[in-house]
Amino acid sequence: MTDATLTFRCVGYGAFPLDQLRRFTCWPLTTDDANAIELSIRAPERDLPYCVTVTGVPYGSLFTFMDRMNSFGWRSEDITPYDDAA
User: Fold this and answer.
1) Alpha helices in 1-86 (DSSP H)
2) Which pTM does this prediction carry?
3) Tens digit of pLDDT for each residue in 16-61?
4) Does some domain include residue 85?
5) Which of 41, 61, 82, 83 is the most exposed place for a label (fewest CB within 10 A)?
6) Structural domain boundaries enclosing 38
């Protein structure tokens, strides 16, 4: 299971912590998510939260990723589609 990766929905205010993508070798799931990251950096003072989905987080980094995102004020939720048949 070492090759397994996780997908997270991240919700927060202010600039998305872009350096965490590098730290966890993950990336935005869609172009819309990449655009939301860019918008959060350009307009961090927005009154509404930003929602970004990232994927590629290594399986062993589940709680580390969540803790790091929380430390930047971004709530993260694991939305990885798990195969119940496995």
Assistant:
1) 19-23, 31-42, 62-71
2) 0.87
3) 999 999 999 999 999 999 999 999 999 989 999 999 999 999 988 9
4) no
5) 83
6) 5-78
Q: State the CB neighbour count (10 A cutoff) for residue 24.
A: 20
In a domain, 84, yes or no: no
Domain count along the chain: 1
For 34, 39, 52, 62, 86, the CA distances from 71, given in Å and listed in that order, are 21, 20, 16, 15, 34
**Residue for token digits 């966890």?**
24
Token pair, residue 31, equals 């172009």
Give the CA distances from residue 31 to residues 58, 65, 71, 86, in Å, rounded to whole numbers and listed in that order: 21, 22, 25, 30
Burial 49-83 (b: 16+ CB within 10 A, else e): ebebbbbebbeebeeebbebbeeeebebeeeeeee
DSSP state of 49: P
- The pLDDT tens digits for 51-67 are 999 999 998 898 999 99
